Amino acid sequence: MSNFYLQARLSSNLIMKGLHYKSLRSFTTMECHRPTILNKKGIDILHSPWFNKGTAFSMTERDRLEVRGLLPPNIMTEQQQIDRFIYITITEADLKKLETNVSNGHSDTLALAKWRILNRLHDRNETMYYKILIGEIEEYAPIVYTPTVGLVCQKYSGLFRRPRGMYFSAADRGEMMSMVYNWPADQVDMIVVTDGSRILGLGDLGVQGIGISIGKLDLYVAAAGINPQRVLPVMIDVGTNNEALLKDPLCKYISLFQDLGLQQHRLEGEEYLSIIDEFMEAVFLRWPHVIVQFEDFQTKWASTLLQRYRNTYRMFNDDVQGTAGVAVAGLLGAVRAQEKMMIDFPKQNIVVAGAGSAGVGVLRAARRTMARMLGDSQAAYESARSQFWVLDANGLITEERTDIDHDVKPFARNTLDIKRRGLREGASLVEVSLAIKYRLSYCNQVQEVKPDVLLGLSAVGGLFSKEVLEAFKGSTSTRPAIFAMSNPTKNAECTPEEAFSIVGKNIIFASGSPFKNVDLGNGEIGYCNQGNNMYLFPGIGLGTLLSGARIISDGMLQAAAEWIRDITKVVAAAVIQEAIEEDLAEGYREMTTRELQRLNKEEILLHVENNMWKPDYPKLIYKDELSI
Ligand SMILES: NC(=O)c1ccc[n+]([C@@H]2O[C@H](COP(=O)([O-])OP(=O)(O)OC[C@H]3O[C@@H](n4cnc5c(N)ncnc54)[C@H](O)[C@@H]3O)[C@@H](O)[C@H]2O)c1
Ligand SMILES: O=C(O)C[C@H](O)C(=O)O
Ligand SMILES: [Mg+2]
Q1: What average pLDDT does the structure give for the chain?
Q2: Are 571 and 540 in contact (CB under 8 A)?
Q3: Which intervals hold domain Malic enzyme NAD-binding (predicted)?
């Protein structure tokens, strides 16, 4: 079982373990023991996915909450409900037919059918939905998250039945401060916001991008134990440049497939920024302690918005910062797998295909990690820079480039150096993968070196073609690493089968979307690791939330990356610890700054455990009952 799935399962088990630490428990109320106070009764409860327990309402609760007679009389246990859902709804339904018709057990139609069934449950009973998601996370994460979520976003306008989350559009300018009060929850801990401009590797999907915010927040609940009543998916609709989603004036009366978003091109420049500014002010006005995760903003805005807000608001960009943490952890893991010392990391030759928000985030973090290992001086940063070979759609990036992006500039190869190595501006991936020759200064001989790592964040499916993989073969590394990190599945730079069969059995392979391990024959298995920011963002969010840190610092992100091999709880605890050390922690709920500062490591872990939501039906109390 991979770490992520383990992490989701443990998130619920750990809460139980927390019960044993009786003496430490007194400092915080366990999240799962809080009763839920309602201001509704009767049928309204059954229609509310937050509070509905369906057939599991006990008879006393049915009486107290005035739902007696509104449900069939047989009271079911939670487990009976789950069994019923899994065996009757999922197994018995048409899915069975679909499954047998699909040779490898997976097809878009099947995945979408499963998503629809889960989504309907999400709409009527959230507790049960998350119980099933956590219990069967390995099976259902690829449905509610990558890769199926990509397909869901592409079809969202057609799939839309009930609203989930909030929409702020360019038409809402000046209204957002009051609109935020339309959301029914007084406390929101986590917002995931997108403008739909770069959904996975699928491009501009406009308003349909809300699906990605929903999918990410599902993982916050499943893996980080964030209470589902305190998460808010958001879509900021500033229009779309995807012509297929814009109204065709000739077809406006045949609007069956009409997109649900604003029918205009994307706002740009100051107009765009003013919308995002207004949104940020509005959500932090109503929920001053919320954390905002920016997701799938096109590169041109991702880093601008990060720089604009990161020192003022509790926010981070998952594609830039979360991906960087996961990739650096993977790169360090590759060094370990080569049975080298960590200090050898700054000697790795790393080829990165893709210089967008994700690629640049990885490059900066990997360079920073190398430089720290080399002494953190200016010279260390310079030296680290020469380990990277960055290509974009126009090939190898060198100082000869004229239209080079500010963030990419530090990674442009020196022209002279490139010539000495027999390469050139715009060299192809095959050329770069073939050899990064260098001249030995003491004898003036040319030495052939092949890259140690081939890392793709290009959104171009199949970019690591047979020719590229052939060229990379025979890498000077004992365990060359191939990270095909683009999403969803069809955008992966190569499949694990291609990588293992062409480059060899000893490679280390990771992909952004899940792939099955490869049977290499003779009982050997080629492991396909998942290199996806889903390993990091739940822990970053939970740690920031519970520390009450004012902002999310580089140090907190670094701490998260260093703990990625462990579970979210540990990632969150590392983030809290760092926030305390940087004097950023301001506390959360009953836990004040001072109390936080006094906690030892074990107590911080317990604080995290106690604050993780667990998918058990809470005791429901109608608010008037409190005064009785
Ligand atoms: N695995 C993860 O956790 C993770 C995280 C973030 C993003 N991603 C994926 O990374 C991909 C890129 O995201 P982004 O925001 O950086 O997108 P982007 O569109 O901003 O960047 C894509 C980059 O790839 C370059 N590119 C295009 N064709 C190329 C080619 N033939 N050779 C080399 N480079 C080429 C482009 O010039 C650009 O620099 C997406 O598919 C996204 O799903 C994965
Ligand atoms: O959403 C994912 O699966 C990872 C990442 O955030 C992406 O944009 O591809
Ligand atoms: Mg993303």
Answers
A1: 88
A2: yes
A3: 320-580
Q: How far is the CA of 162 from the centre of ligand 2 (A)?
A: 24
Separation between Cα atoms, residue 35 and residue 16, nearest integer Å: 17
Using the atom order of ligand 1, give the atom closest to the CA of residue 408: 39
Q: What are the binding residues for a divalent metal cation?
A: 295-296, 319
The three-state secondary structure class of 388 is: strand
CATH code of the domain occupying 322-534: 3.40.50.720
* 620 SS3 class: strand
Ligand 1 atom closest to 485 (CA): 1
**Is domain 35-144 in CATH 1.20.1370.30, yes or no?**
yes
ipTM of the complex: 0.99
Helix (H, G, I), strand (E, B) or coil at 520: strand
List the beta bridge partners of residue 454: 351, 482
Ligand 2 atom 9, closest CA: 200
3-state secondary structure 423-435: CCCCCCHHHHHHC
pLDDT of residue 443: 64
What are φ and ψ of residue 215, in 5° steps? -60, -40
Three-class SS state of 396: strand
C-beta of 369 in contact with ligand 1 (< 6 A): no
Annotated active-site residue in 114, 131, 216, 450: 216
Instruction: List 193's β-bridge partners, or say none.
Output: 234, 294
Q: What CATH number labels 156-313?
A: 3.40.50.10380
pLDDT tens digits along 186-219 = 999 999 999 999 999 999 999 999 999 999 999 9
Report the separation in Å between the CA atom of 531 and the middle of ligand 1, taken as the mean of its atom positions. Answer: 14
Instruction: For residue 125, give both structure tokens.
Output: 């009973």
How remote is the CA of residue 79 from the centroid of ligand 3, in Å? 34
Q: Model-level pTM? A: 0.88
* Domain ranges, ordered by start, for the chain: 3-33+546-610, 35-144, 156-313, 322-534
